[in-house]
Amino acid sequence: MPRKPVKISRYNIGERELKAFLGPLEVDVIEVVWSSEKPLTVREVYEKLKRRRKVAYTTIMTTMDRLYDKGLLDRREERGRGGIVYVYWPRLEKNGFKKSAVQEVLNSLLENFGEIVANYLVERISSSEQESKDLKQKLEKALKRG
Fold first, then answer.
1. What is the mean pLDDT of the chain?
2. How far apart are CA 125 and CA 74, in angstroms?
3. pLDDT at position 4
4. So what's the pLDDT on residue 6?
């Protein structure tokens, strides 16, 4: 089955870091999954989160399914004590998610307001000598690659 593309359906300009792209419970759930060295079941995530916040098992299940639909989690079926269960693991590491999310937002801004965004970025970067040097080096490398 082909992998789902990561879908960033919102950007909340008033929030910081991950909460700019995901809801508070989605952030808590994905942080638990990122911190694990092995795939986790809904029950395992629920057990970790219920210590920090009042939340229902079915809410965690729905949230993990939503993160799967957004392409942030992968899953497979396994046989458990109660029958078939899903185990989940992250499709992207934290920095990979941040990079994908920022790229989606910037691509959307460029598609909708290209010239304004480009001019703003040039103005913003040119106001700092170090940022200008860094950008020039990155552009030169990109042009050499091709």
1. 89
2. 37
3. 60
4. 75
